[in-house]
Amino acid sequence: MVDRLVGKSCTPCKGGIPPLTAQEAERFHKQVPKWELREDARQIERTYRCKNFGEALAFVREVGELAETEGHHPDICFGWGYAKVALQTKKIKGLHENDFIMAAKIDRLVGQADA
After folding, report:
1. CA–CA gap between residue 86 and residue 2 (Å, rounded)
2. Rounded CA separation 94/91 (Å)
3. Using CA atoms, how far apart are residues 99 and 44, in angstroms rounded to an integer?
4. Where are the alpha helices (DSSP H) in 1-115?
5. What is the pLDDT of residue 27?
6. So where are the chain's domains?
7. Which residues contact 81 (CB under 8 A, 6 or more apart)?
8. Beta 82-87 vs 75-79: how paired, if at all?
9. Phi, psi at residue 114, to the nearest 5°?
């Protein structure tokens, strides 16, 4: 199922559309179950574990390059041994399919491993 999301590209969101409902978000969430639905289904978040600071930094750089390619930019917090990624479409103050596409593509970067 993740392959369906990974095969898509993020589309520019100009705002003016409603965010996904909780039910719609849950359907997409089933395709990226390692992510957590947060803020009443208005954001998704996942913490990746890394061996050290350098590995976390390298992961953040990869996610940053992917984000630039997709034109969809997550919030990232990282330090020694971890990187936390949060996704939300800010123009609509909630979730959009793009957030789940990015989540699937980020998971693919790490080989969909349990992190």
Report:
1. 18
2. 8
3. 8
4. 2-6, 22-29, 53-70, 97-109
5. 94
6. 23-109
7. 49, 50, 51, 52, 53, 56
8. antiparallel
9. -70, 120
